[in-house]
Amino acid sequence: MSKEHFAREALAQIPKILTLQDRNAHSPTYGCFDRNFWHYKIIDFPSGMAQEFVWPLALAVRTDCPGNPYFGSEVVKEWAAAGILFAARAAHPDGSCDDYFPYEKAGGAAAFSLLACMEAYRLLDLHDEEMLAFFRKRANWLAHHNESGRLTNHQALIVVCLDRASELLRTDDWKNARDGRLARVLEWQNPEGWFQEYEGCDPGYHTLTVSLLAQIHHHTPSDAVEAALRKAIVFVARFVHPDGSFGGEYTSRNTYNFFPHGFEIAGRWMPEALTINDRFLAGLASGKAPCYADDHILGHHTWSYLLAYRQFVDERPPASDRPQGRTHFPNARLLIDRRADTELFLALNKGGVFKFFRGEKLVASDTQFSIKTAGKRSRTAVAHLIDDYDVSLGQDEIVIRGRLGWA
Questions:
Q1: Strand order of the sheet with strand 370-372?
Q2: Co-location of 184 and 331 in the same domain
Q3: Which domain covers residue 243, as residue numbers?
Q4: Which residue of 55, 230, 236, 263 has the smallest Cβ count within 10 Å?
């Protein structure tokens, strides 16, 4: 399977990323990627997450691949550097940043954008004391920040940030914090192999946690991390759909996310990981690429796709048949049933939300019914909220009973 599909999909996003940035060097918001702030002025603070886009730009400048008009571009390098400086100058005094709300001090936005800024700094061979001071302040804030809820991908992201910052700034100030975060990531892995994302299992964000752990293991080899990765990869291998698509509403966060770069890293010592990417690449080749064109998170997948292209393993394992039969994950409350030429992906914890395939074609994608009340105050009750449902699993019939919830 051709790695060019990763590069093609990623490079197609660069024009939009550039459109989102204030590229006027005389503007007070030069380098800002939040167009709602600097152009439309419909919010009065910039989203810190938006500065993550410096990494896709840096990768585009440094990745020599067919059809890449940005390779070696000095002006795109300048725009990426401007984005790092804007991140530094727009941060709160303690190094944190906001995402959707003023004074939110969002851990995810701070971590995604810090990692992006540091990787862009390294890729572009920049030398700037203001940027380095910002990296130190942001890393220190992340080392001591705790967010509500269980988002394992954020914890893994912070570990990678602290690894990179420690290396770049030549310090071990955050070693204890880093080790504690990593221990938390491993603790939050379910025995079935998946990592907690809010109320349960989300295979999409699971691929991000896998990719980050693969980076961590590559940087600092660990038997414990390798063992966690092996379980995580075996788990996620079952969730690539027969048409090469991935994820959907049957997962805890309803995402179609897929972060491929970690499977290339892990594939050097676990070839089964490469098969996952090959199946996803087949989907890209046939036009099944998910749309990630959200102004806030567009960058996540763009840098991951370009990293997968750059780290692509040429020696691939032969294609294998998809396993037949039923696989039930009672802790994740997910069920996969493959028989003959049909495949069912079912959420037992969301009232029976499912995707059903025949051959390589999606036949049905159902989020169950909803009811709208009549009267002066209209309300909507839905059947797809995460809850403890009464489930009866038969060989040819699955019955799920529960209560509706107000949307």
A1: 370-372, 380-382, 405-406
A2: no
A3: 4-310
A4: 230
Strand order across the beta sheet in which 342-347 lies = 325-329, 334-339, 342-347, 354-358, 361-366
> Does 124 share its domain with 168?
yes
Planar angle of CA 330, 227, 281, nearest 5 degrees: 75
- Give bridge partners of residue 356 from the DSSP assignment: 344, 364
What total of structural domains would you count in the chain?
A: 2
One domain, residues 15 and 84: yes
Q: Encode pLDDT of 334-349 as tens digits.
A: 999 999 999 999 999 9
> What is the reported pTM?
0.96
Q: 155 and 93 in contact (C-beta within 8 Å)?
A: no
Q: How many residues does the chain have?
A: 407
C-alpha–C-alpha distance, residues 293 and 12, integer Å = 11
CA 372 to chain CA mean position, Å? 34
pLDDT for 59-105, tens place per residue? 999 999 999 999 999 999 999 999 999 999 999 999 999 999 999 99
